[in-house]
Design goal:
By secondary structure, this protein is α/β, with parallel strands linked by helices. The chain is built from 15 helices and eight strands. Helix content is 48%, strand content 13%. The longest helix has 21 residues.
């Protein structure tokens, strides 16, 4: 059975740095599971790599400190990239990594992507309905929300404030609700293969199953108290603000990237683009950004409860990384039926 390592955790927990170290030690390659890192030009705000890293950009992957990272720069800003695309790309890339006798290491903070990878997702094959989307795009955010609430009240109760204010996500949820004529669930197991759905999405990736029974996912989570994570992310933000994040977002605006798309990305891209366009003052942008990213961290932590099996490590504790590596060594190289793993 193929073993795949997954590193999940909130923003600023050091996931990528840890994954690079593990890839070096256990002979692996990384695949990003971050919904914003797939976009070209969203480097600083999405936190693709640390400033101290040695980076070589290649077509299809980055080489960071001697380790390949797949999943960066897949599409242009404004282009649609769905969970379907993530599953397709990731499954294909995992096969390639396993084919060269290395361990795939999935790393990122988009819990929905990781949950879909492990368990599958029953809505992934629902195609985009452009005619419906054109009609829905004429509605206000509140009108979209009210329409969804009538179609799928269970879904709307589960949505956080960010989702309720995001027209793109509301439209997709309406699309799914109309297609299924039932409550939308993101925890179902997909039995369809990507090859059967290839006519739905115009991606050129190789057709592979959405979920393989021959894959053993080893999921590790990085966590800490909220106050500890807030302190880390505040430092993380300050570093990026002083290392070109404003210029990066200004460049996207200069390239005529749709302002609503930047707003829908949330966090840094929302508030700094609003500041650049004169919609808010610098102080308001920073205050709102700090509040939003703290809320985002809390939402990321809720995914820990949604995974059936996860090994959690508190990054504020001493020797946590050494303990994680010890556990991983056991899981990767010993038969759990013969050896008791605590």
């Amino acid at each position: 059975m193929n073993k795949v390592l997954i590193i999940y955790g909130p923003t600023a927990t050091g996931k990528t740095s840890l994954a690079i170290n593990l890839a070096d030690k256990f002979n692996g390659e990384l695949i990003s599971a971050d919904s914003r890192q797939v976009y070209k030009g969203l480097d600083i705000g999405s936190g693709k790599v640390s400033y101290s890293s040695k980076v070589e950009r290649h077509k299809g992957y980055w080489n960071v400190d001697g380790i390949k990272i797949h999943g960066f720069d897949l599409v242009s800003p404004g282009q649609r990239f769905s969970v379907f695309d993530f599953l397709n790309f990731t499954n294909t890339t995992m096969i390639q990594i396993i084919g060269v006798k290395k361990i795939p290491i999935i790393v990122g903070g988009t819990g929905f992507y990781i949950k879909a990878l492990i368990d599958g997702i029953e809505t992934v094959g629902i195609p985009a309905n452009q005619k419906l989307r054109d009609q829905l795009e004429k509605l206000s955010t509140d009108q979209l929300y009210q329409k969804l609430r009538k179609l799928d009240p269970k879904r709307t109760k589960m949505m956080n404030e960010s989702d309720r204010q995001n027209p793109r996500r509301l439209i997709r949820a309406i699309e799914i609700a109309l297609s299924t004529s039932s409550s939308v669930s993101h925890t179902g197991v997909a039995t369809t293969t990507i090859s059967a759905l290839s006519s739905v999405e115009s991606r050129s990736y190789r057709s592979v199953p959405l979920r393989s029974r021959m894959t053993n996912y080893l999921l590790f989570g990085l966590t800490a108290s909220n106050s500890y994570l807030y302190s880390r992310v505040d430092t993380w933000l300050e570093e990026r603000l002083s290392h070109g994040m404003i210029g990066e977002i200004r460049s996207l605006a200069d390239q005529k990237v749709d302002s609503q798309w930047l707003d829908d990305l949330g966090l840094e891209y929302r508030w700094i683009s609003r500041y650049i366009s004169g919609k808010v003052s610098w102080q308001e942008a920073i205050d709102r950004l700090w509040g939003d990213i703290h809320s985002f961290i809390r939402r990321q932590k809720t995914w820990f409860k949604k995974f059936e099996e996860i090994y959690l490590y508190d990054i504020s504790k001493p020797n946590w990384q050494k303990e994680l590596e010890k556990k991983l060594d056991l899981l990767l190289f010993y038969d759990s039926k013969k050896y008791q793993i605590a």
